Amino acid sequence: MLSGKRPISKICCIGEVMIELVNGRHGNITLGVAGDTYNTAVYLKRMLQQKHTVAYCTALGTDPYSAKIKEALHNYNIDTSCIEIRTDKIPGLYAVDTDADGERSFTYWRSDAAARTLFQPPNKISFKTLAGFDLIYLSGITMAILPPDIRAALIDFVHTFKAGGGTVAYDSNYRPKLWENQAVAQDINTQLWQLADIALPSVDDEMELFSESTQAEVVARLQSLGVTYGALKQGAEGPLDLGIQHAVAENLTQVSHVIDSTAAGDSFNAGYLASYVLGETSKSQLERGHNLAAKVITHPGAIIPE
C-alpha cells in the first residue's frame, strides 16, 4: 500500500457506460453493455468478489437501454448508488467491427449521451458523493466527455480527495475524437498524471497524444510529472513497472491468436488494481494485469463469461 493512504475497502469507477453492438464474423450482431471504466469495474469486482465494494458512477436515462445497463451492473454486483438519472437523456451507443488480426474499429453515437451531464446541476450525485470512497478510478474518456468547467471542478476534487488519503488511479485512454483538440487533451492528461497515485497508461496512447516516438520518451515524461507507481502497458511485450522498485513480470501468458482486443487495457487495469488492493507485490500486480488481459483478448466483446 502506498504511504499515507487509507486502507481500501470501497472503490468507485467513474465514466461512461454504453450499449455495445458487436459485429460478428458471420454477420450476427450481439448487443451488450461496455465502456472503458465500466469494463474495469466489472473485472475488478470479479477479482475482489465480496471483499470490497466496487461502485460505478455515471449518468443514465429512464429508457429501456439505460435499464439494461443498470441490470447488467446489478448482475455483476456493482454498486449503483452513484448513478445520476436524466429523464431527457439516453446512453451512448457504439459498434465494434473486428478484422482478421483481432484489431477492432469503432463507430460511436454518443454526442448527446446522459453521461456527458454527470456532476452538472440539477444533480443528486456530487463530488461529495465520491468522497466516501477509498480509491477512485477514472480515465481520459471520463475527462473528455465532460465540459471544461466540470473537468476543472473534478480535478479540484481529485486534489482534495488525494490530500485526504484517498487513492487515485488513472489511465489516459486517449481517443482524439472526444477532445476539442490535442492541446487540451495534453493539458488535462498532464494534470491527471501529476495527481495519479497509480498511473496505468498505454504506450501507444501516450506516444500519440504527446507526439513521442519511443517508450523511453514516454517514461521520462511521466517520471518528470511525478509518476512513481503504476504500469506502462505495452501489449504483447508485457508491462513496464513505473514504480521505484522496477519490478519485472516473469509469468506472463502468451497469446498466439487474438480474437478481439476490446477491453485489453481495461481488463489489465482491473487485474493490476485488484492485486494492488489485495496487498500483493508489484511483480504480481503486473502479472495479474497482463494475464487477465491475455485471457480477455481470446474472447469476443469487452466482457467475457466468468
UniProtKB/TrEMBL annotation:
Keyword Kinase on entry: yes
Domain Carbohydrate kinase PfkB: 10-305
Any one Pfam family match given in the protein's UniProt record, by short name: PfkB
GO BP, sorted A to Z: D-galacturonate catabolic process; D-glucuronate catabolic process; DNA damage response
GO cellular component: cytosol
MF terms (GO), sorted A to Z: 2-dehydro-3-deoxygluconokinase activity
Family, similarity comment: Belongs to the carbohydrate kinase PfkB family.
Xref: PANTHER family: 2-DEHYDRO-3-DEOXYGLUCONOKINASE, HEXOKINASE FAMILY MEMBER
Protein name, entry field: 2-dehydro-3-deoxygluconokinase
